[in-house]
């Protein structure tokens, strides 16, 4: 969602702000803008659409000045046009904001004069409130201090002030914000990626913090429940994120690169949990005894929630431990009773998804032990958890999640095994077999990627379709859901995922001549049932794209002829969902390329959804 960058520098700010915004593009946005201080006055340029449009505006009317703020906006209140683009400004203050000011209507009335408002956004009112305090003679710090307690909702914002070349003020409540420390320069960024080439020394603001930043450092205060601010100390850390990690290399899109990184990042993730030589698995000390846990409640959004569904199947099958999965936006509101001594597990690439975070807080209030699987160690979800299991996916830039998903599955597989060991439902021989199957996954994933060209040729049939169905059983069912989501997200083709056993309860009515049906069918205990579903599809004219191993493909051919086959390596059914995720990612990717969509930044989508 919205990206923020702020610079108090020694060189021209505009090119550096644009560079920072480029690195924030992956979050998803529909307009952008920057503001700088030019001879003490606020000047700004904004444009609807992609950064190229803003760059063209800047070519025509360059912005000078060494202090400035920039923003990529993902529209919530008000359409994505220039007037609604950030920064919003008065003569005295300019602001960029991520999140939603929920009481903005009420605050607009407080400001009074409606003619002051030039946009439909919730953000602009903050500029007018601060501007009004400045007009009364308050300093910028005092004006922000008076404004913050008035704001309801979730936000991160950064402001610059006319006549104050050496000052930026930023605040965080709900949405992340980091301060970057340079050599005589200071920065703000909505994530470490924005700041990567500028500095490695970063301080993440905590909930309720606000910071007064000057070229030689920052003073951080925390807004208390009594509406008063008190000084706090926050650690400055070295971040591992580097500018080099976020190039596309020789790939056309980040998504393609990230799909192809999977053998390596699954390997890196496994490395933290598995000892392949000994066939054993170790998790860092969990804050609970899995043998005493009555129930696991998993919550996540989007792709991460499908990883959670696979996790549920694994934890229940291997560890015989009742597990429920809920999407974040449902768990947080449906007042589900959570048992005493229960474990709540949250899965999130970014660690910032608002609904997942709020579900976590709900579970915490209900006395659950909080475990999270995240890709960003400094994220809010990681910081609010009792224990964190990291995926080692590296920065994921493509909006449609790929390597984050398979590394989440990798951690969940290790977790299910650890639970099973602790609960005495996994003997040493089976542990060694599963550990060996997991250790093979990176190599097997590389084999799957060799089918790239073949999958690209199958994508032609999918690209012409109006509707596409994905079906699977067992852990193949969440993979079917994820396949349909991937296709929808980046190719804009209507797709649905179903449990293959549900086919006769509805979706079969839609199967007619040439409707593509992607069947996830690794050989194993559920194969025959899935194969008979394939027969039913083929006999109704469906174009079945059949994903199985050599054994399954041979068996299928004796029953019905699928339209296309994708052969995967034969593996233990336990690890099959990790591998079967890869061809469905490639199928969606190649279909989107054929359709000419914006693969890395699909319309209307954001990488990290930090509002409800
Ligand atoms: C957005 C992204 C998805 C992602 C979901 C959850 O919808 O577009 O790719 O799966 O958020 O994100 P998280 O960072 O919590 O995994």
Write the layout of secondary structure elements.
Layout: E1 3-8, H1 13-24, E2 31-38, E3 41-48, H2 51-60, E4 67-73, E5 88-89, E6 93-101, H3 104-111, H4 124-135, H5 140-147, E7 153-161, E8 164-173, E9 178-181, E10 186-189, H6 192-195, E11 201-204, E12 209-214, E13 217-223, E14 229-232, E15 237-238, H7 254-260, H8 262-271, E16 274-275, E17 280-281, E18 296-300, H9 302-319, E19 323-327, H10 328-331, E20 343-348, H11 354-365, E21 369-374, H12 380-383, E22 387-390, H13 403-422, H14 428-449, H15 452-463, E23 467-472, H16 476-491, E24 494-499, E25 516-520, H17 527-538, E26 543-548, H18 550-557, E27 564-567, H19 576-595
Parallel strand pairs: 18-19, 18-20, 20-21, 21-22, 23-24, 23-25, 25-26, 26-27
Antiparallel strand pairs: 1-4, 1-10, 2-3, 2-4, 5-6, 6-7, 7-8, 8-12, 9-10, 9-11, 11-15, 12-13, 13-14, 16-17
């Amino acid at each position: 969602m919205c990206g923020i960058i702020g610079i108090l520098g020694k060189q021209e700010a505009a090119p550096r702000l644009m560079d920072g915004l480029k690195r924030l593009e992956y979050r998803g946005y529909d307009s952008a803008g920057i503001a700088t201080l030019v001879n003490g006055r606020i000047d700004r340029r904004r444009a609807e659409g992609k950064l190229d449009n803003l760059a063209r505006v800047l070519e025509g009317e360059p912005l000078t000045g060494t202090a400035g703020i920039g923003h990529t906006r993902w529209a919530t209140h008000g359409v994505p046009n220039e007037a609604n683009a950030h920064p919003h400004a008065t003569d005295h203050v300019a602001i960029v904001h991520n999140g939603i000011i929920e009481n903005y209507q009420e605050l607009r009335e407080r400001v009074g004069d409606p003619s002051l408002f030039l946009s439909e956004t919730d953000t602009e009112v903050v500029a007018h409130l601060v501007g009004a305090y400045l007009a009364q003679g308050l300093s910028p710090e005092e004006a922000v201090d008076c404004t913050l307690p008035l704001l309801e909702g979730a936000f991160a914002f950064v402001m610059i002030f006319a006549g104050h070349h050496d000052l930026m003020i930023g605040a965080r409540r709900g949405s992340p914000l980091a301060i970057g420390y340079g050599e005589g320069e200071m920065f703000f960024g909505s994530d470490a990626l924005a700041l990567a080439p500028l500095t490695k020394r970063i301080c993440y603001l905590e909930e309720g913090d606000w910071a007064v930043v000057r070229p030689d450092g920052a003073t951080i205060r925390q807004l208390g429940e009594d509406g008063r601010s008190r000084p706090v100390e926050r650690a400055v850390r070295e971040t591992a994120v580097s500018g080099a990690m976020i190039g596309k290399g020789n790939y056309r899109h980040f998504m393609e690169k990230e799909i192809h990184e999977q053998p390596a990042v699954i390997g890196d993730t496994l490395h933290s949990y598995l000892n392949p030589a000994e066939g054993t698995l170790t998790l860092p000390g969990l804050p609970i005894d899995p043998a005493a846990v009555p129930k696991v409640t998993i919550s996540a959004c989007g792709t991460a929630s499908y990883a959670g569904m696979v996790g549920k199947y694994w934890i229940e099958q291997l560890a015989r431990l009742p597990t429920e999965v809920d999407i974040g936006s449902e768990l947080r509101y449906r007042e589900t009773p959570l048992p005493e001594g229960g474990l709540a597990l949250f899965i999130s690439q970014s660690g910032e998804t608002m609904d997942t975070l709020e579900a976590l807080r709900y579970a915490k209030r209900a006395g659950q032990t909080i475990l999270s699987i995240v890709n960003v160690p400094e994220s809010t979800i990681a910081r609010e958890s009792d224990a964190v299991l990291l995926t080692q996916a590296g920065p994921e830039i493509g909006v449609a999640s790929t390597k984050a998903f398979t590394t989440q599955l990798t951690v969940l597989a290790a977790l299910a095994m650890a639970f099973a060991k602790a609960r005495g439902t996994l003997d040493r021989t089976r542990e060694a077999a599963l550990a060996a199957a997991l250790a093979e996954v990176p190599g097997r994933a590389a084999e799957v990627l060799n089918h790239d060209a073949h999958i690209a040729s199958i994508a032609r049939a999918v690209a012409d379709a109006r509707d596409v169905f994905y079906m699977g059983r067992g852990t193949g069912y969440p993979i079917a859901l994820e396949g349909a989501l991937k296709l929808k997200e980046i190719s804009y083709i209507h797709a649905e995922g179903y449990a293959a056993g549900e086919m006769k309860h509805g979706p079969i009515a839609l199967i007619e001549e040439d409707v593509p049906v992607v069947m996830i069918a690794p050989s194993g205990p559920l194969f025959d049932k899935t194969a008979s579903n394939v027969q039913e599809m083929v006999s109704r004219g469906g174009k079945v794209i059949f994903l199985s191993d050599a054994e399954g493909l041979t068996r299928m051919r004796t029953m019905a002829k699928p339209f296309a086959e994708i052969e995967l390596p034969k593996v233990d059914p336990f690890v099959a969902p990790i591998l079967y995720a890869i061809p469905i990612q490639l199928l969606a990717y190649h279909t989107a390329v054929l359709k000419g969509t914006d693969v890395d930044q699909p319309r209307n989508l954001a990488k990290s959804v930090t509002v409800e």
